Every structure is written in structure tokens, then in C-alpha cells.
Amino acid sequence: MHGENCLTGQNNMTQASEGFEQQVLSELKQISDRLIHVEGRIDKVENNLERLDFKFETYEKASEKVFRLSTTIIIAAASVVILSPVLTALSPVLGAIANQFVGK
Predict the structure, then answer these.
(1) How far apart are CA 18 and CA 25, in angstroms?
(2) What is the DSSP string of 29-66?
(3) pLDDT tens digits, 7-54
(4) Which contiguous run of DSSP H or E holds residue 20?
(5) What span, in angstroms and rounded, lies between the C-alpha atoms of 24 and 16?
């Protein structure tokens, strides 16, 4: 009788050990699934960051070009505004100088 109790005890321990092993494996599988899900989300975030970085670089380059263009337009407009009265005021002097060279 004592021998049967030992076998039953060993069987119970084996079953408990197998149950514990199954529980650990199940929890490891759940952790693995969560990690796969997290990795997928990280990949999506990385892709979004790459796209945002590209958009930012594109915006930055376009902004620099617009700044250069606007600066050029402002300089050209200022030159016209400033040089027009100066050339108008100098035209009699330039005409007199030209007449001196042509008249000789």
C-alpha cells in the first residue's frame, strides 16, 4: 500500500510539474506575441519618423529657396526704385559728357 502511495505521489508531482511547464510555456508564448506586436508598432513609428524627416527636409529646402527668391525680388525692386531717380537726375550730366566726346 505504501508503494502505491509513492507512485501516486510521483504521478501527482509529474502532473503538477507538467502543468507548471505548460503554464510557463503559455505565458512565454503570450510575451512573445506581445513583443512581436510591439516590434510591429516600433516599425510603424520608425517609418512615420522617416517620412516626417523627409518632409521636414523638403520643407526646409523649399523654405531656403523661397527666402532666396524673395530676397532677390526685394533687391531688384529696391534697385529699380533707387536707380530710377538717380539715373533721371544724372541723365543731363551724362548727356553733357557724351556731347563733349561726340563733339570733339
Answers:
(1) 10
(2) HHHHHHHHHHHHHHHHHHHHHHHHHHHHHHHHHHHHHH
(3) 565 666 777 788 888 999 999 999 999 999 999 999 999 999 999 999
(4) helix 2-103
(5) 12
Burial 3-42 (b: 16+ CB within 10 A, else e): eeeeeeeeeeeeeeeeeeeeeeeeeeeeeeeeeeeeeeee
C-alpha cell at 61: 529646402
What nine digits make up the cell of 70?
Answer: 524673395
Q: Which three cell numbers stand for residue 48?
A: 512615420
What are 44-95's pLDDT values in tens digits? Answer: 999 999 999 999 999 999 999 999 999 999 999 999 999 889 888 888 888 8
